[in-house]
Amino acid sequence: MNYARFLTAVSAARKPSPIRMLTELQQRSPPSLISLAGGAPNPNTFPFQSASIKLKNGQTLTFDDVAMKRALQYSASNGIPELLTWMKNLQKDLHDPPTAGYAPENGQMDMCVTTGSQEGLCKVFEMLVNPGDNILLDAPTYSGTLAVLQPLGCNLINVPSDQHGMIPAALKEVLSRWDPSEVNKPSSTAPKILYTIPNGGNPTGASMTAQRKQEVYELARQYDMLIIEDDPYFFLQFDKPWAPTFLSMDVDGRIIRTDSFSKILSSGLRIGFVTGPKPLVDRVVLHIQASTMHTSTFTQLMVSQLLHSWGQEGFIQHIEGVIEFYRKQRDAMITSADKWLKDVAEWHTPSAGMFLWIKLKGIADTQQLIMKKALEKEVLLVPGGVFMINSSDPCPYVRAAFSLSTPEQIDEAFRRLSSLIKEAL
Ligand SMILES: Cc1ncc(COP(=O)(O)O)c(CNc2cc3ccccc3n(O)c2=O)c1O
């Protein structure tokens, strides 16, 4: 893979920060080294002495005064070593990426910690997207991704999808405008990246089949595209076996995967990961160096202590509990949808994630209905237009989340929604 062709001029121009390199050199050196280099503050001046965090399983995570000094200090831009190692082992055990054994320049699987996968997405797109570029994605899509892409002045091309995700035949049709043999020419306008949410899609709840992923991956090979696999709902798949990921089939080193702990450990701790070919992850890390420097050391150490105490087995056991919770929530939402919305709306039952994508019958655009009438009835959903490439296009859909409300609240909410739809009709 020629990774240079994918980089923006800004990303290609990034250089390692000498100060950060010194800090990391010092942290790798024996304690006998005396450093007068780093401009780090002296942790003895910090007001925080120690911390202990009680877990629901009765265990306690502790930060004694030595651990606290480290937790409150600067750390490596790509993430603290023990968390990165734990996550790399998890990625290898879960996805067995072909790239794990590749040489760095050939796209060896690498990772970095980001402040939520939102930061990972933002920095990945800013690494790859120039104004005017053609970008492929299946809309409707996550509004946070549109918020990153639209200011970059690129041309977002929708690839039709259905409840099973992106449709490979539709992707082939969209790509047929370009000649695969010409895509590497500097003048080519062929898309270089494709973005998709493969499991429990936001907002559609759609999950891609393994077959479709294989076909999409083959098309990405043919047109030399990178695929950004944004997969925060991977651990919220209600049925086994979990779907094979693009990362697990990545023989070329063309997958950039964003993972998140938001839906399984905590959304407020802001811990995400970028997994991808080393030449590209290196560029994201250089951007982190120049922006946030690194994700909170304290947060990373807290999560790392938890994961090391759980082990992979304990982590998966926790995930099973989370899955059971969201499955029950999903079932409650579907039961209430069948009870209240059957004649006024239609939907597909999601097999992952936390969203139900509901098409209101006989209503061209839900914006006004939701933002005005629904509020009067004291029920709040997201009008589908916010997830479209062009938010002013009429959209008959609404997104309902089954993550926070109780089954009883969901039932009452859909009763209210049903009556306002009937009034509107
Ligand atoms: C597909 C996809 N990719 C990335 C992210 C970012 O997650 P991170 O790891 O926490 O940074 C998300 C998070 N999605 C949402 C977040 C959110 C936060 C406050 C309020 C509402 C929110 N709604 O509605 C969301 O959908 C996502 O759905």
From TrEMBL:
It comes from Perca flavescens. Pathway: Amino-acid degradation; L-lysine degradation via saccharopine pathway; glutaryl-CoA from L-lysine: step 4/6. It catalyses: L-2-aminoadipate + glyoxylate = 2-oxoadipate + glycine; glyoxylate + L-methionine = 4-methylsulfanyl-2-oxobutanoate + glycine; L-tyrosine + glyoxylate = 3-(4-hydroxyphenyl)pyruvate + glycine; 4-methylsulfanyl-2-oxobutanoate + L-kynurenine = kynurenate + L-methionine + H2O. GO terms for biological process: alpha-amino acid metabolic process. Its cofactor is pyridoxal 5'-phosphate. This is Kynurenine/alpha-aminoadipate aminotransferase, mitochondrial. InterPro entries: Aminotransferase_I/II_large, Class-I_PLP-dep_aminotransf, PyrdxlP-dep_Trfase, PyrdxlP-dep_Trfase_major, PyrdxlP-dep_Trfase_small. GO terms for molecular function: 2-aminoadipate transaminase activity; glycine:2-oxoglutarate aminotransferase activity; kynurenine-glyoxylate transaminase activity; kynurenine-oxoglutarate transaminase activity; methionine-glyoxylate transaminase activity; pyridoxal phosphate binding. Signal peptide: none annotated. Its EC number is 2.6.1.39, 2.6.1.4, 2.6.1.63, 2.6.1.7. Keywords: Aminotransferase, Pyridoxal phosphate, Transferase.
